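Researcher: Please predict.
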Amino acid sequence: MKVKLRLTNWRCIANETITLGKINIFFGKNSTGKSSVAYAIYMLGSLYEKSLDSLVGALFGTSLQSLVRIENGDKNTL
């Protein structure tokens, strides 16, 4: 599964579209935006998890964390 990430006016990136796969490796010279891309992915993941937690809370009256168990870094439903 591939996902396209479009960054516009994000930190040092003016306008860029990046295709992401299951595993991604970013390499290049210093100050070229590698950390900016990683931070954007992290922020999107955090926002998604918070919005998902709010939805679960509204539907089930509990948090997402109470429905998910972390085991060896993998999320497993209880």
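Model: Helices lie at 34-60, 64-67.
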